[in-house]
Amino acid sequence: MSDDTLVVWDESLLDYDMGEHPLDPVRVELTVALARELGVLDRPGVRLIRPEPADDATLTRVHLPDYLAAVRTAPRDPLFAGYGLGTSDNPVFDGMHESSALIAGATVAAAEAVWRGEARRAVNVAGGLHHAMPDRAAGFCVYNDPAVAIARLLDLGAERVAYVDVDVHHGDGVQEVFYHDPRVLTVSLHETPLALFPGTGFPDETGGPGAQGSAVNVPLPPGTDDAGWQRAFHAIVPSVLRAFRPQILLTQCGADGHRLDPLADLHLSVDGQRATYLTLRALADELCDGRWVATGGGGYALVEVVPRAWTHLLAVATGDPLDPATLTPPDWRALAAHRLPGRDVPLRMTDDVDPSHQPWQPTGEPNSVDRAVAATRKAVFPLLGLDPYDPRD
Fold it and tell me: Which residues does the UniProt record annotate as the domain Histone deacetylase (predicted)?
């Protein structure tokens, strides 16, 4: 296996552009620019490749043919309606099929390279469109690139694929596609569906018949900070991954759990997100011989958060993590100020938050995070042969 890290990138990935919309591709542009300015993409062993669009045969492993036809047709038909398209969440835009297929192709290329041993890790920061369903667009997502990549891995012979989603929204589309497939473990930590789109991701969603225990959901209360989030993550994710024994790890690394994100109500920091990426890499090293495919996802603090979070992700995937005290380069600050005038451009790669946490314990007076942890452990741990009350599991 190569020790290289593959970064799938081309400026054409910015064509996934819904216009006046929260999902602004400038966040991806600024991420890649910041990573370049800090030398992350020039490290030894880092290879950049241009993606190719996923073809229909690849896309229809997840999406229905009539939905693909609708995505192609909608931009040419001013009266088009249906399939979740033409809504405020999912407006129709020119080149919608082509740009969506390119993002899917980028994540598929990342997964294929890691599975075949051509790279140990791979990243597509433009990916992570985890809400798209087989028959419709949802939550800013047209084609579900993580699900398409997982389906490709199964076709290549993978028997145990783990998907961990740390976006603030439930990874509902990926869960839906593989809910009845015991070969795929989906794990999602998110703000409670009682408060946030898409309204799914409760602890009792644990997998369909024949695949019980293959879905793990950790819904967290609004206001959860780094210490609570890390406490929940470490109380659930390492245990279920170790029980499942994945051959490869895919992660959706949405940055919208940050306290500055305008669309949600968790209170994470860039420092906490960086700590999560380090843990995910360590779990991939422990369980999958390092095989890790990472995508972006949500994140709507376009200057203040996303570029820093995903540059940390790229640094963790490509080698040494960046020192949180690192200054953002002046040229990048100028670019960010030019692209989005009037926004607060961060001066450093840190929020000056210590993301350490106290490990979860089943005793004592539980807070709202501990109750969420206990609910998930009770629902899914016995299905995986784990003890929900033993903190060692």
Answer: 21-315
